[in-house]
Input
Amino acid sequence: MGKLLEVDEKSDIIFRLLTYRKVLLPEILERYTLHAFLSRFFVEGIMQGLNELPPPGRHRQQTCVLQSNPEKHPRRPVGLIALEHNPSVLNVEYGVLYVPESRNFPLVDAFFFVDAPRRTMVGVQVTAGAEHGTRTSTVRQFNNLLRSYFNGWETFAEGLLWEVIYVQHEDSTPIHAWQECVVVAHAKCNGREVERRTDPHRLVRRS
Output
């Protein structure tokens, strides 16, 4: 799976087509959004179109970690094999795009970790609506899976901030509201903890 996700910016037709992003970006994003995040060129090209979904009561938008630090984008992909196939437990690495093999993986379609300026997990959800869902049970399932995939997940997740990038086509049902995810290392937390740690952003694919 990792080989299929490898990106060569000099020879890959995807990135040559991205130079015409005003015309072709929606179609390219439709199929290649996830592994396109491996490209600094791509990340810098989409960051201006990324808008935060602020929580209730806060009107000032904040930038996501990639907007202020595009060089922190992931550099290589790692596929997460379904747990029923007994994959090896991994050490968490920064700069790696983790792409679950399962189509039913909860919460996000891929994710990566950033070490600075703030330790952050960035999830990417390619969606036509809110198809993954952000219910507490979904987030708990997500955390349980990460605990199974990674060595020392409980320790690593302490103090970790979370951002989720929702990628939508402009014709899909837009996500405008704050997504109340209970995204923390432990399932039990209060609303203030959720608000402090979770920062959703929305990117619209325009035709």
In short: DSSP finds eight helices and seven strands in the chain. The first helix runs from residue 2 to 5. Residues 2-205 form one domain.
